[in-house]
Known about the structure:
Distance between the termini: 47 Å
Order of helices and strands: EHEHEHEHHEHH
Largest sheet: 5 strands, parallel
Number of domains: 1
CATH architecture: 3-Layer(aba) Sandwich
Strand order of the largest sheet: 3-2-1-4-5
Shape: globular
Amino acid sequence: xxxxxxxxxxxxxxxxxxxxxxxxxxxxxxxxxxxxxxxxxxxxxxxxxxxxxxxxxxxxxxxxxxxxxxxxxxxxxxxxxxxxxxxxxxxxxxxxxxxxxxxxxxxxxxxxxxxxxxxxxxxxxxxxxxxxxxxxxxxxxxxxxxxxxxxxxxxxxxxxxxxxxxxxxxxxxxxxxxxxxxxxxxxxxxxxxxxxxxxxxxxxxxxxxxxxxxxxxxxxxxxxxxxxxxxx
Length: 232
């Protein structure tokens, strides 16, 4: 039998990489979608290419969509990326690294490609436990988006319902690490940092780095990421 097609949003970070591996494990023919949206950490796209190659994903599309035209986020402007946030404060408020409507935009692109492919499954690495408090990573948002997609597409009107898979949604970072390692992932090829050096070394101080390091520490395994010397 021909495996069902699925579109996976692949940023090159540890969460989306784990999600892509889960989709492959579950028998989907993975079509990976990455977006060059003007993010300051464009090294993640290089990571996404490495991940797609390592996972044997034959269909990987990179779309250009420059959200720097809008700004509104530390990731799409020259505003400083928050550093050294206390662990107790991460997720307690929406940080300046939130990109307005990013997941809505990304899911819309994934939806368009899925409908073209005849796919009824979309995967993304949203997480609502160890995360920075982004509103578009919550389960109620994903449920609402799936309902909208069924109303907005020809496939949905004709009865082919869309399923949005967020397999990491309710996992702690340590559980994500354990899941990825059980699937044979090499997290050393991923890029998580919001403010990496030009050579790709992670800063070790932004919220994404802090959450990643916490996950590996709690999982009891070394983090293979390459950090800048002061934070290695």
